[in-house]
Write a structure and sequence with these properties.
It is found in: Membrane. About 70% of the residues lie in helices and about 0% in strands. The chain has 3 helices and no strands.
């Protein structure tokens, strides 16, 4: 091989345009994509939180239904037992004599509980408004 001057076959390239292109790719493609991914994760978290709130409200309603009907179930179970205490087979009127006052006590305690502020009150503010503005 013959000695060739280095300038004839060497490539002197100015790297400034490539670095500028790399910076443009970073700013215009990679950063917005990372921000979009973060936004998708946040939207999924918000959707899951809303679903969780709906599920909590459903379970809260189920708890109140149980609170109301559990005493009546207890009375029905008591009258359905085969024990010596009820061996004379009391008439049906005794079920209502016990069940109606018990139901009144349960409903009154429900209203007292809710009106005393001890019940759960869902106070969701619309987007952009604080709960203090809710009436």
């Amino acid at each position: 091989m013959k000695d060739v001057p280095k300038d004839e076959y060497s490539v002197d390239v100015d790297m400034a345009p490539f670095e500028s292109f790399q910076l443009d790719i970073q700013q215009n493609l990679i950063n917005p994509t990372a921000n979009l991914l973060d936004m998708v994760y946040k939207r999924v978290a918000i959707r899951d939180a809303r679903y969780s709130l709906q599920l909590n409200m459903s379970l809260w309603r189920l708890s109140w239904v149980t609170f109301i009907f559990l005493p009546l179930t207890f009375v029905a179970t008591l009258f359905g037992m085969n024990v010596d205490l009820l061996s004379e087979n009391p008439s049906l009127k005794w079920y209502f004599v016990i069940a109606v006052p018990m139901m009144v006590v349960v409903v009154l305690s429900l209203f007292l509980f809710k009106n005393a502020g001890l019940g759960r009150k869902a106070n969701f503010a619309p987007r952009g408004k604080s709960p203090e503005h809710m009436v």
